[in-house]
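seq:
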Amino acid sequence: MKNKLIILTFIVFSVNFTYGQKMFHAELLLDAKAGIGETPIWHPSEEKLYWIDIDKKTLNTFDPVSKIEKQFDLQKMPGTVVPIDTGGVLVALRDGVYAFNMNTNSFRLLVAPEKNLPDNWLNDGKCDPAGRFWFGSMGSKYKASLYRLSASGKCDKMLDSITISNGIVWSLDNTKMYYIDSPTMKVRQFDYDNSTGNISNPKAVIKFPEGVGSPDGMAIDSEGKLWIAHWGGACVSCWDPNTGKMLAKVEVPAQNVTACAFGGKNLETLYITTTSLFTDEASQKKYPSRGGIFVVNTGAKGIPTNYFKTK
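struct:
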């Protein structure tokens, strides 16, 4: 009887998660065969897709017009990438944040906030509307943190007791920050001061139900809705942070969906990264294109990627 109740509960969660929502299906763009494809961004001036492969230690770019792909060896495990206003990119590698010159393949270390925590490594992150770089770490339970790096080189620890720091975005009016620590199964909202970069008054605004995977990377669209990748859930979901309700679901042919970003013409294409690793045998057969880069047009539009501002 207990097992039947567990099964019934899972079915109810599944129905509640999809019933009455808009449904979309992502299509394969690049058969990238990424070990751990992650943190896609649409470069505002270059009009190219950037993304990383943590497992292969690479930064990758794709021009959807010319179809040209490029790959850069980062030498260490990357966590995320963001563009710099003066050119080049910041990359959060396992041991620190570096300025990476893609023309010379040279690195310049800016900060290493967890050099005394060898079991941790840097993970997801983005730049806020004022151009500060927010990046988090992952590692042992409650041993990771979220940091904020400014143009002056000052690096502040903004949150601690994190386990897997992942998706982060800011509201369209620059008054809220949304943030994911994946094992919590929640999206937290903070009051955000764009002039100082300070955050306060955290509260959970979205709670993932059991059985749908865990929240990973996140994007925000031009209407303030949140698009969240599901690690272990084979989809991206869209949520209203004001109501906590799910509005749409994008089915993705990969078990582990890691992140998403709007790009392309008028920022109308949602690019989605996935992994080929950490996949069970059944899903390996079901999803032969796992590790690919997928795309979908849902009618939503994104907002431009923020640069790291050096002044």
